[in-house]
Amino acid sequence: MNLGDLGAEIIKVEKPGSGDDTRSWGPPFVGTESVYFLSVNRNKKSIAINMKKAKGAKIIKELAAVCDVLVENYVPGKLAGMGLGYDDINTVAPHIIYCSITGYGQTGPKFQQAGYDSVAAAVSGLLHITGPEGGEPVRPGVAMTDLATGLYAYGAIMAALLQRHKTGKGMHLDCNLLSSQVACLTYIASNFLNCRTESIRWGTAHASIVPYQAFRTKDGYIVVGAGNNQQFATVCKVLSFPEIIHDPKYKNNQQRVINRKELIGILSARFLEKETSKWLDHFEGSGVPYGPINSMKQVFSDPQVSYLGNTFTWCMFFKIFNYYHRHYYLSNVSYICYLFSENSKQLNFIPSSR
């Protein structure tokens, strides 16, 4: 979708009959269209091809010859068995950037296992560190491993296109859920690799920064983070705790981490005294990072979200205009959501060049 946002023409190849599995994921639906499917298929034209048949494989190769990038997410070896692996495509399209997105990569002891977001999140350790302290592992509310892998693939494709501009040659990119999520472990992984420190679940809190978490208020929650001593002093002033600023137990972040339980207990009791809106007013202009935990209704009514334009980008999928061809415009960028196999008839062409 990001490549499409930048102006690329995206052609999504689906299986004849039912199409992409996510077309049936719901409710909710807009008419007969899965809202989940619409949310992740912006800018993608749709064609239906049976790649298991020689005619279908031939069409894929013809498309590859006139396209810049091919993205596939089959189990390694599956496309090669159809004559559509990287070596096969490279023969007819040596310029192609062939990006494979899998669960576990192209080689190794697990490379032929299927991969889903939650499974990769579990194997990579993300679920081990996500959830309430002392509680059960929790899946993030959205498919963060899928999203991270897509963004890594997006960056790799852009870099590969630049490399091809210099060399004239394409390449095979290996992007996978496991590697992407392990890379996203950042300091959690570094803590273990360098100090053999096993991480635990902290809920909304941070293992190495205190205070940096959600606090319950009289009617909701607010997240406050103090990443340095000056910010901590400001938090104490906002909460009317000037005496805590100079307490030796909280004089720096290291001491605050050591004395986390006592400090968080003090702060939590104070936050419960007022409504979220009151605390937001108190922190306004303080220089301390803060914000409420918003519902979806609150997110899309937030003035900053509206100002940045995100609402328009998302809302285009949730209103039925011309149901047979949805076409929207935002900041001179065209956003389209196509019906299943809508563009299949457009394949009757004989391309002369890329």
From TrEMBL:
<dbReference type="InterPro" id="IPR023606">
    <property type="entry name" value="CoA-Trfase_III_dom_1_sf"/>
</dbReference>
<dbReference type="Pfam" id="PF02515">
    <property type="entry name" value="CoA_transf_3"/>
</dbReference>
<comment type="similarity">
    <text>Belongs to the CoA-transferase III family.</text>
</comment>
<dbReference type="GO" id="GO:0005739">
    <property type="term" value="C:mitochondrion"/>
</dbReference>
<dbReference type="InterPro" id="IPR044855">
    <property type="entry name" value="CoA-Trfase_III_dom3_sf"/>
</dbReference>
<protein>
    <submittedName>
        <fullName>Succinyl-CoA:glutarate-CoA transferase</fullName>
    </submittedName>
</protein>
<dbReference type="InterPro" id="IPR003673">
    <property type="entry name" value="CoA-Trfase_fam_III"/>
</dbReference>
<dbReference type="GO" id="GO:0047369">
    <property type="term" value="F:succinate-hydroxymethylglutarate CoA-transferase activity"/>
</dbReference>
<keyword id="KW-0808">Transferase</keyword>
<dbReference type="InterPro" id="IPR050483">
    <property type="entry name" value="CoA-transferase_III_domain"/>
</dbReference>
